[in-house]
Each structure stands twice: as C-alpha cells, then as structure tokens.
C-alpha cells in the first residue's frame, strides 16, 4: 500500500469517526432537550396535583359543613 493510499484511508476513517461524533453530539442535545421537556411537564403535573388536592380539601370541608347542618 502506498503512503498516499494509507493517508487517504486514515483521512476517510477519521472523517467517519468525526461524523459519528457529530451524530452523538446531536443525540446528546436531543436527549437533554427531551429531559428538560420532561422536567417541565413534571412541574406542570405537580402544580395540577396541588390544585386538585386543594379542591378536594375544600369539597371535604363543604361536605363536613353540610353533614353538621343536617
């Protein structure tokens, strides 16, 4: 194998490795974006759960008042 052929082979392989690294970086960025979206969704769910718990407490209080009136 000639030196130039070997150099071309090495350059081609390095190019492929760089392409794979770029794809890994893109995948990592997508994962991080997905994680951020999941965390935001979790925060929204927790807020809604808190609101629902507050409503349940209010309803339980109203039921107790109605029961004492009867």
Automatic annotation (TrEMBL):
<protein>
    <submittedName>
        <fullName>Uncharacterized protein</fullName>
    </submittedName>
</protein>
<feature type="coiled-coil region">
    <location>
        <begin position="42"/>
        <end position="69"/>
    </location>
</feature>
<keyword id="KW-0175">Coiled coil</keyword>
């Amino acid at each position: 194998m000639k030196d130039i052929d070997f150099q071309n082979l090495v350059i081609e392989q390095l190019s492929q490795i760089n392409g794979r690294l770029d794809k890994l970086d893109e995948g990592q960025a997508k994962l991080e974006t997905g994680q951020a979206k999941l965390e935001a969704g979790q925060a929204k769910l927790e807020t809604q759960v808190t609101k629902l718990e507050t409503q349940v407490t209010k309803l339980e209080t109203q039921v107790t008042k109605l029961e004492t009136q009867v």
